[in-house]
Design goal:
Largest sheet: 7 strands, mixed
Low-confidence stretches: 1-17
Number of helices: 11
Number of strands: 17
Distance between the termini: 10 Å
Radius of gyration: 22 Å
Order of helices and strands: EEEEEHEEEEHEHEHEHEHEHHHEHEHE
Shape: globular
Length: about 350
Amino acid sequence: CNLNFVRTHFAGCVEKMANARVFNLVKRFSGYPTEDDFQLVEEELKPLQDGEVLGKTLYLSVDPYMRIYVKNMPLGSPMIGGAVARIVESRNASFQKGDLVYSFSIGWRTAFVSDGKNLTKATHLPPDVPESLAIGTLGMPGRTAYFGLLDVCKPLKAGETVLVNGSAGAVGNVVGQIAKIKGCTVIGFAGSDPKVEYLKSIGFDHAFNYKTVDLHQTLTQVAPNGIDAFFDNVGGEFADTVLLYHMKTFGRVSICGCISQYNLKPASEAEVSKGLFDTQTMGPHLQGVILAKQLRIEGFIVTRFSDRNDEANAALVQWVQEGKLKWREHVTEGFENMPKAFIGMLKGENIGKAVVKITEV
């Protein structure tokens, strides 16, 4: 249903929104999420109080991290996720009607009332780019690529060889492009031939469909001297092969995600309680090769760099404006399609950043 606006014409009255649509999490995931794990409900929004703003959601983000972060969410609460919104009414001095904001605590909803503490103005966006880039290449995924490559894999030098898996996704494609900007040779792996063609079109030196090539043989051919920096979005057997056989001495590994494990079904209820993942897998024992090659392997969550967001935003915007950093979005229209978009992203249906455009007015 459409959002209904009730306008009053008396002095001092504010615009009020009658309701919003919200997707709540109602079941724990077992393997891949299903549409039955979510429930669409209507929520009545309270009238604005002093210090609050009323926002209308424009775009919502679907990202791999959401699959594991829901583990500790209370059932019946709104599904988490990033959002871009427009302020449609404000009684908060820090925000004006018309401000574009983004947030990672609004959740899956078409509108909201907020005290503003969970909102950030998207003032860094150039006027000639889509608003959705605030949760894409010029947002959290872009900053994840920036810090995960340039900080976690430092010192990154021109002429080095950088490997990225999951490289046609929101983060991976930006990692590869930043590595090219810094003068590196970039190798990317993705899960379909169209994705491979996309990677080649944005400047990757080598791009492969991991489903149709032998990873070990391919890396031996295109990087016979080894990998200097490995940006890992996948984990699992892919990462094991790279670490065991293809890293250079003093190589650096940035562990950003392990999507190969996110949707594994638990072997038992007891296993579910072990950690963030539904199941824990044992790979090869890698300590020997890590020691022998003196590798530096570091996991990171981008929020640890949040005090430097302005730095990353400025660099990303500059590269976009210079034509050095290209962006691509996989846009699903309609709030009612949030679960489908989320499940599709986890199954690799998107090229570039997956977002949902909220089409209701």
